[in-house]
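Case study 2.
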Amino acid sequence: MPSKPALREGTAFTGSTKYVLDSELAQIVNVSMALEMPLLLKGEPGTGKTMLAHAIAEALGMQLIVLNVKSSMKLVESLYQYDTLTRLNDSRFGDSTRDVSNIEDYIKMGKIGQAFAADERVVLLIDEIDKADTDFQDDMLDVLDQMEFDIIEIDKRIRARNRPVIVITSNAKKDLSDPFLGRCNFHHIAFPDEEMMGRIVRVHFPDVAQDLLDSAVDAFYRLREIRGVEKKPATRELINWVRALRADPDFKPKKLQKGEIPYLGVLFKKSPDYAVAQNSVRRFRI
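Prediction:
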């Protein structure tokens, strides 16, 4: 069985150089690590679910392994792959250093397999689990509970050397099963309010002028309220927008206060949304 996690004494996750979090989120992260349970994060795109795993890895000095879930993915792909095509080519042409009679030479670990095989404890991010079907979800948690799986081609059981810190994200596009939910700790990351967003932007731009920060955050939240927009701008878009405003030598924060909103294409990435925002700004002088 995997060894008990050994964080440095007194170590707790409190954020990272680029991630601002509230006390409630910090608590659920730390209790999930202490209880050795997966942490399931929900929230609209752009609320920092994926970046949280990156921040945990950075703050605690761990390797980050990312499993990007696809709708067609089979569980075995996340555990290991048996490269039958390469083995066939090696047996045909005989110019490989591998021993074609040794199947293990053609086994490559998937992302979960890599996390199990790591010499030190890692952070395993399972991103957008709601894209997978229910069987994938439940079978995956069976593997993560037991911290082991079998490679049937070579009749070998792989056991985790260390139990990873597991972060699972969902955009809530599909309901997760009750057994799945019952085996995870859960946290919903709400979209940041204006005060928190100001803190987030200042982490990325420590020297940003206060008038620019205030005007940009205020305009950003008013733009998010435009009706008829499918994909509202998220934190990532705001940070890139502030970067664009700072790079423009002719830009003045007063322009935002007057309703002049430049670089809408940085905030709205879909053509219909861009058109709606453009018309709204023009007509209502946001």
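The CA atoms of residues 201 and 239 lie 6 Å apart.
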